[in-house]
Specification:
The chain has 339 residues and is of the alpha/beta class. The chain is built from eleven helices and twelve strands. β11 and β12 form a beta hairpin.
Length: 339
């Protein structure tokens, strides 16, 4: 099974290397990763390494008729030498997979892939990470206490300030809170926490996206952005003073804007990013316009991490029907941010 193995050699740094985690073995992560790489491998200047189960991935290339040469490697840096092929760092974990089934073993394997990819990124052995979908229930059953990828990556990298940015079409959506109930999300709208996300958004747009003076819109919390306090006071007490503070610093920040009209103007190119006050406020418009090509980008990490904006799709796992468009977009965004 390892006839194409590349054994220990000195690390070569001539090409940027992107690690792609396999995700939950019972989901579509392996399928979309293989399909995406097959479409990109001959036109990309990057090199790639899959972090997962080598034998299982080889089986999937045959099952889904994906023409992509996979090479077993025992060290991530060796994948930089591979042209037209993809290295696989074999961590096992997929010996007896039942498609679409939630198991402790699959959850543990998914966490192991993420943990190793993070270690490689922190050590400078890979230049970016693209993560395939995981099942939150499975990782929780396996003992992982974090709600999802974002919080786990922050923990592993000891990152205190982080945020989720969803990128798709003309939208760059930053979420004030992520996987919380609506009631708990409102409690996270405080001057210090909103400013933390706003500052991170400003730095990311300047540093990673190369926008010298980004135009950032802040979405209101309440209908009509509170209608001057008639429908809620958060805009008056918290958001307006923060907008004024940002403007005194010379930032192009505006708002709080009525959420029901804001995204129309974003779609017309009036803003570079929107800071949204809760999860669905930002995700609904993004998925309406970029359902198949949305990308999740984690802000604040010491390395680039992107992910397709969809889940494990257990209902179609193993059937060869998974669309790799979002994974392709995630890989391409990671490449763009590394330039």
């Amino acid at each position: 099974m390892k006839s194409e193995a590349v054994h220990h050699q000195s690390k070569i740094q001539q090409s940027r290397l992107i690690a792609i985690t396999m995700g939950d073995p019972a989901g579509i992560g392996g399928e979309v990763a293989l399909k995406a790489l097959a479409s990109l491998i001959h036109k990309s200047k990057s090199r790639f390494i899959l972090v997962g189960d080598y034998s299982f991935l080889v089986q999937q290339t045959k099952k889904f008729k994906v023409r992509l040469p996979l090479v077993w490697v025992n060290e991530a840096g060796l994948a930089r030498e591979l042209k037209g092929k993809v290295g696989v760092l074999d961590l096992g974990g997929a010996k007896s997979v039942h498609w679409g089934k939630i198991t402790v073993a699959n959850g543990a394997a998914a966490v192991r892939y993420i943990t190793e990819a993070t270690r490689l990124a922190l050590a400078g052995e890979v230049d970016a990470i693209v993560t395939a979908p995981i099942c939150k229930e499975a990782i929780h059953k396996a003992g992982c206490p974090f709600p999802g990828h974002t919080e786990l990556l922050a923990h592993l990298s000891k990152t205190k300030t982080f945020a989720m940015m969803m990128v798709g079409g003309s939208f760059k959506i930053v979420l004030q809170s992520i996987h919380l109930s609506l009631k708990d999300s409102i409690s996270k709208i405080t001057p210090s926490l909103v400013w933390e996300k706003l500052e991170l958004t400003q730095k990311t747009l300047q540093g990673w996206f190369g926008i010298p003076k980004p135009r950032i819109a802040i979405a209101g919390v309440n209908p009509h952005a509170g209608e001057n306090g008639a429908f809620g006071k958060e805009e008056i007490r918290i958001l307006k003073p923060l907008v004024a503070k940002a403007q005194r610093k010379g930032w192009k920040v505006s708002g709080p804007h009525p959420p029901d009209t804001l995204f129309y103007w974003v779609s017309k190119g009036h803003y570079d990013a929107v800071l949204c006050m809760y999860h669905d406020q930002g995700l609904i418009p993004l998925k309406l316009t970029a359902f198949e090509t949305g990308v999740n980008l984690t802000l604040g990490l010491p390395f680039v991490r992107t992910s397709p904006d969809h889940g494990t799709a257990f209902d179609i796992a193993g059937k060869g029907k998974a669309n790799p468009s979002s994974m392709i977009a995630a890989i391409q965004l990671a490449e763009r941010l590394l330039i």
